[in-house]
Amino acid sequence: MSKEEDRANEYLAEAKKNIESSKGFFGRMFGATSKIEDASSLYSRAGNSFKIAKNWKAAGDAFCEAAKLQENQLQSKHEAASQYVEAANCYRKSNFEEAINCLQQAIEIYTEMGRFSIAAKHHITIAEIYETNLADINEAINHYTKAADFYKGEESNSAANKCLLKMAFYYAQQENYKKAISIYEDVAAVCIESPLLKYSAREHYFRASLCWLCLDIAAVEVAINKYLEMFPALEDSRELKFLNKLVEAVKEENIDHFTEAVREYDSISRLDQWYTTLLLRIKKSFTGDDIDIN
Hints:
Blueprint: H1 3-23, H2 25-29, H3 32-52, H4 56-73, H5 77-91, H6 96-112, H7 116-132, H8 137-153, H9 157-173, H10 177-192, H11 201-215, H12 217-230, H13 238-252, H14 255-266, H15 273-287
């Protein structure tokens, strides 16, 4: 055991003594609150010492104890939430479920306090844990949804859009194309109204169009025409030229033209995994196989 862990354990023992002494008659009469405040501080100091020793579970446990004292006995909601977040940061290195539990506790407190933007930030952290560490995309979507709702309520549209685009990204991967399309169209419409974000609408309409190609070849041309009406700058874009080639190739069931269109576009604008996945699905829809698109 390291010196830092020895020091942390000393802090824990002292904290417990303070809690016990606060329960006695004299403790209740004289300075019970002070004893609890000291105990909370000692738990926090223990947590920091455990962090230095990289004993992440013990650090998380200590910060949790500090949070409980702040929340339940000292009625200091903000400090309690801060301690829960500290605990979550430690648990992320040892126990993802506990990290999520602590962040949920913090979110509840911040929501009660009306601190919705901070609550949204922690929903995003939970979403990232689910998508990166626990491979639970449905729960990730759930928390991105909650974060987006909080940001919308605070009129933080840019932050809300980032969450919505994450949701659309995963909806498309799950072949829930209608939900993905709806989000891409809504975000694009918001972007068009902003001089700074206007040209990012091109990518959102591009992604929506690929989702339409996966879903319904008859509807994609209608959708593209609608997007052109809303965003005329799309007309001269490489994305639209690419989409038109894909639509023709799918209608003609011409695998060579489809493959060539993909190769040509990819040679200038590298297609990432999301695009590749959707293009493979589109190709499979008229070839019936899983062969490479390149």
